[in-house]
Write a structure and sequence with these properties.
Keywords: ATP-binding, Helicase, Hydrolase, Nucleotide-binding
Number of helices: 16
Pfam families: DEAD, Helicase_C
Bound molecules: adenosine monophosphate
Structural class: alpha/beta
InterPro entries: DEAD/DEAH_box_helicase_dom, DEAD/DEAH_RhlB, DEAD_box_RNA_helicase, Helicase_ATP-bd, Helicase_C-like, P-loop_NTPase, RNA-helicase_DEAD-box_CS, RNA_helicase_DEAD_Q_motif
Radius of gyration: 22 Å
CATH topology of the largest domain: Rossmann fold
CATH architecture of the largest domain: 3-Layer(aba) Sandwich
Protein name: DEAD/DEAH box helicase
Family: Belongs to the DEAD box helicase family.
Length: 492
C-alpha cells in the first residue's frame, strides 16, 4: 500500500517523498484512514512505529481542507509528557506540513513564555504542548479553545506516570466537548483504560505492536559485571567493538555526569542530557550527537523521552531503569521504523530484581554474556532460562543457566510461560504515587495534593520553588519510595 492509496493530498505526498518515506508503516495504515474520517482513536503504538505521522498526516490534511484559524484560536492540540517529545512532535508536524499553509508552534516550560504568547496571537492550526505550560498559557488568556477540533494525547501512559493527571483534567475541562480525540499510549494499564473511557467516543482501536513488547527488531543482550566495573567495562566495549554512535542510559543525573566525566577524561567525545541541564544545552547536545560530533550521549530516562535519532544503531543501559516500562522506551530509541538495532544492558547483582521485572514486562529472558576481565565477583542470579544460542569463541558464559549469544546472530528468545498481569516491580524501588519529579519543571505537583478545581502550574518562572515546596510536602517517606527531590543523584 502507498500513501497515495490512503487518499492523502498532494502537498503531503510531496513532503513524504522528500523525506524518503516509501510506504506507510502498519500504524499509519490503520490510523490515517480513521483520523481522516473524523473518528476517535485509541492506539497502542510505542515509539519507533511511525505513530507521529500516523496522526500528523491526516490531521494536517483535515486542517488544510477545513477552515482557517482566528486570532488566539487553536484548532489542534497535541499534549506530550516531556519537552523533548513535544519538540520532536512539533518538528514532525513541520516536516510533514512543509507544503501546506498552516501555523504550528510548540510550548513547554523551562524557557521564557513571552515568545510562546506572541506566537499564539494570530492563532495556531497546531499547538504541541506539555500540560503544565499549556495551563500557564491558558491562565494568562494567551489562547482560546473555541475552535478546537482535535485533541491528541501522545504517550498518555507517560503523562500519567509523570503525575500530570490533575493538569490533564484541568485542560480537558477547558476543551469543547464536541471534538475528535486521539489517544496514543505504549502501555494500557487500568488508569489509561479509564482515561480512554472518559474521553473517547466509539473509538477505532489501533494496535501497532503488542503492549509492553520490546521492539521486535532490537537484538538484546545483558552483560553481567560488578557495579564498580561498569564505567571501565563500557569504555572497553566502546573501544573493542568500535561503537561510534551510542546512546547510554544512566539512572541518575549524578551518574550521567560521572560517566561523561570518565569518558571525556579518556578522550571520548561524550555529552550529557538530563533534567539539570537548560533546554538549549540539551538540544545542542542532541544535535551534536545526531551530527556525530558527539560519539556517546549519556541520558536519564525523562530527558531521553521522545528522542528520535534516525538510524541509531545502539542503546546501552549503563544502569537498569527502576520502572520496568522505561526499559521498553529506552530500547525503542534504536530499531526505529523497522531498522535493525541493538540494546546492551550492563547488569550487576544489585539489579537482579529490576532485570526480573523487565523480563516479565517484555516477556523474554534476555541472553547473557560476561566479558573476560570484567566478570562479576558478586554473581548476578539467574532469572530464567533464555533460548539456547551458540557460545562465541573467547567469550565466557556468565552463569550456569545463561548461555552467551553470538555476535551478529539474532537471539531466538522464548516467551515466558506465564506472563504476570501486573509488572513485578522491585519492591524496594516503587514509583511514588503521582510520580512527582521536579526534573520536568513544566509538570505540576502530584495530583493527590491538588484541591478540586484548582489549576496548579509549575512551568516557567517559579517552577523550581513550586516544585521544591511541593516536594517538601508531598514526597513519600524515604524508606517508602525513591527520593524525587532535586538533590544530586535523583532520577531525572
Ligand atoms: P515515531 O514512531 O513517530 O517516533 O517515528 C519513528 C521514526 O520513523 C521517525 O524517525 C520517522 O521519521 C520514521 N518514519 C515514520 N514513518 C515512516 C515511514 N512510513 N517510512 C520511513 N520512516 C518513517
Amino acid at each position: 500500500m502507498t500513501f497515495a492509496a490512503l487518499k492523502l493530498i498532494d502537498p503531503l505526498l510531496r513532503a513524504l517523498q522528500e523525506l524518503g518515506y516509501d510506504d506507510p508503516t502498519p500504524v499509519q495504515r490503520q490510523a490515517i484512514h480513521a483520523v481522516l474520517a473524523g473518528r476517535d482513536l485509541m492506539a497502542a503504538a510505542q515509539t519507533g512505529t511511525g505513530k507521529t505521522a500516523g496522526f500528523a498526516l491526516p490531521l494536517l490534511q483535515r486542517l488544510t481542507m477545513e477552515g482557517v484559524v482566528a486570532p488566539l484560536g487553536v484548532r489542534c492540540l497535541v499534549l506530550a509528557p516531556t519537552r523533548e517529545l513535544a519538540e520532536q512532535v512539533y518538528t514532525s508536524f513541520r516536516k510533514y506540513g512543509a507544503h501546506v499553509p498552516l501555523r504550528f508552534a510548540v510550548a513547554y516550560g523551562g524557557v521564557p513564555i513571552e515568545p510562546q504568547i506572541a506566537r499564539l496571537k494570530k492563532g495556531l492550526d497546531v499547538l504541541v504542548a506539555t500540560p503544565g505550560r499549556l495551563l500557564d498559557l491558558l491562565r494568562q488568556g494567551a489562547l482560546t479553545f473555541a475552535q478546537l477540533q482535535t485533541l491528541v494525547l501522545d504517550e498518555a501512559d507517560r503523562m500519567l506516570d509523570l503525575g500530570f493527571a490533575a493538569d490533564l483534567d484541568a485542560v480537558f475541562a477547558a476543551l469543547p466537548p464536541q471534538r475528535q480525540t486521539l489517544l496514543f499510549s505504549a502501555t494500557f494499564p487500568a488508569s489509561i483504560r479509564t482515561l480512554a473511557g472518559q474521553l473517547l467516543r466509539d473509538p477505532v482501536s489501533v494496535q501497532a505492536s503488542p503492549a509492553n513488547a520490546a521492539a521486535r527488531t532490537v537484538r538484546q543482550l545483558v552483560i553481567t559485571t560488578d557495579k564498580k566495573s561498569k564505567p571501565d567495562l563500557f569504555l572497553h566495549l566502546l573501544r573493542e567493538r568500535g561503537w561510534n554512535q551510542v546512546l547510554v542510559f544512566a539512572k541518575t543525573r549524578k551518574g550521567v555526569d560521572q560517566l561523561v566525566g570518565v569518558l571525556q577524561q579518556e578522550g571520548v567525545r561524550a555529552d550529557a542530557i538530563h533534567g539539570d541541564k537548560p533546554q538549549p544545552a540539551r538540544l545542542r547536545a542532541l544535535e551534536r550527537f545526531k551530527a556525530r560530533d558527539v560519539q556517546v550521549l549519556v541520558a536519564t530516562d525523562v530527558a531521553a523521552r521522545g528522542l528520535d535519532i534516525q538510524g541509531l544503531p545502539l542503546v546501552v543501559n549503563h544502569d537498569l531503569p527502576t520502572v520496568a516500562e522505561d526499559f521498553v522506551h529506552r530500547i525503542g530509541r534504536t530499531g526505529r521504523a523497522g531498522a535493525a538495532g541493538e540494546a546492551i544492558s550492563l547488569v550487576c547483582a544489585d539489579e537482579v530484581e529490576l532485570l526480573r521485572a523487565i523480563e516479565a514486562v517484555i516477556r523474554q529472558v534476555l541472553p547473557r554474556e560476561e566479558i573476560p576481565g570484567f566478570e562479576a565477583a558478586h554473581r548476578v542470579p539467574s532469572t530464567g532460562t533464555p533460548a539456547r544460542a551458540a557460545q562465541p569463541a573467547g567469550r565466557k558464559v556468565s552463569s550456569k543457566s545463561a548461555p552467551a549469544s553470538k555476535p551478529g546472530v539474532k537471539p531466538v528468545l522464548k516467551p515466558m510461560p506465564k506472563p504476570p498481569t501486573k509488572p513485578a516491580f522491585a519492591p524496594s524501588t516503587p514509583r511514588p504515587a503521582g510520580g512527582f519529579d521536579p526534573a520536568t519543571p513544566e509538570r505540576a505537583r502530584p495530583p493527590k495534593r491538588v484541591p478540586q478545581g484548582a489549576v496548579v502550574v509549575a512551568g516557567g518562572r517559579g517552577a523550581k520553588s513550586a516544585a521544591k515546596a511541593a516536594a517538601k510536602s508531598a514526597l513519600p517517606a524515604p524508606n517508602k519510595g525513591p527520593t524525587r527531590g532535586r538533590k544530586k543523584g535523583s532520577p531525572a
